[in-house]
Every structure is written in structure tokens, then in C-alpha cells.
Amino acid sequence: MSKYVLIMDEVDGVSGNEDRGGIQELISLIKRSRIPIICICNDRQHKKIRSLANYCYDLRFHRPTIQQIHAAMLTILQRENVSNIKPETLDEIIKSCNQDIRQTIHSLNLWSIQGGKTNLLAAKMIEKSVNNNPFELCRLSFSSELRNKSIIDKSDIFFYDYQLMPLLIQENYLQCQPHVTNSSNEKRKLTDIEHLKLISQASDSICLGDICSQMIFSRNENWSLLPYQ
Fold it and tell me: GO cellular component annotations, sorted alphabetically (predicted)?
């Protein structure tokens, strides 16, 4: 006889008018269900989860240690025939990824594509990227530091937190004072008309980004629009 279990993933994401009453309905379902119901969340301290936890067995998972991840990554590296990553470099990559297994695997995959040539300095560059906060990245987005960066590097800043970054940009883009440079690399302040045109273009781009976000997070949940993370 087959046994069944119902898994409710990301229950802390139940919010908004579309999900109104969702937690209470889930609690009601738990009370009358004849099969086990597993509820998974990321934010255990969310106020909605506190009420749900009263009807669940509270099983908490802790981030794995560097040693545990190291052993698992060695197995993967061996099977993928990647042998030129030093143990101390692997530990640094794991630490730089905040002991996130998925991010560690993704980083190792990138290193292997680049020939597997890793060192401690390169591994620490991951930590610099991971430890950036959205407010610092917002400042960077409005600075000239990104002028010579590729579109991939620029999109990485957005996808660092693709829910918060658009809000920060929308909140601050009108305060930005853009300049243009001529062939002699001399800065010139924009005229009012030029400034208004850039604001209009930025507004259109923000609106287009919001439409894309709606396609991702709506009921259709078109997650393929997001990059691999």
C-alpha cells in the first residue's frame, strides 16, 4: 500500500491579497488531515509562522560545517575529474559562500569551466561579492565604477537581491546627477532636456523590469526568467 505525504514549501511566502487566509486554511488542513504534512520555511521568526508552529513539530536545520561541506565537495570534484584545487582553497571557497552548498557547487562549476585554476586570492574574491549589501550595490549602480563593466557584471548586481534592488533603484534614481564625457574624457553636466530624457528612459526601464517581475512572481511563476543561483 502506497504511503503519501503533503509537502508545503516556502510557507513563509504566503502573503498579499491572493493568499489571504492561507495560513489559517493550512492550519485547518493540518487538524483534519490523515496524512503527514511537512511545512518548509526560511524565516522561522515570521509572525505568520509563529501561529503555524503551534500545530507542527518544530524541526530546525542548521547550516552544515565547513568540514561537512568539504567532504561532500571532494566527492563531487573526484567524480568530475577536477583534481587541481588545493584543500585550503576549497575551504576558502566554502567559507566565502557562507557555507551555502548550492552556491559552493555553482562556484566550483565556474572554476572548473575556467580550467580549475584557483588560488586563495581568487577564492576570497567570492567573499567580497557575497558580502556586498544591497545598499552598497545600489550606490555602486549609480556610480561611474560600472561604466566599463560588462552587462553580465551589471546584471549580477541586480540579481544579488532581485526583489529589493528594484525598490532601491526606484527610490533613488531621481536623485542621480548624470554627466557625459567627450572624446577628451572631460565631464559635462547635462542640460535640463537631456536630463529629462534620461529620466524618462530610466522610468520606462523600471516599468519594464516590474512587468518582468510580475511574470516571475505571479501565479504563472515563470522562474526560467531568473538566472541560475
Answer: nucleus
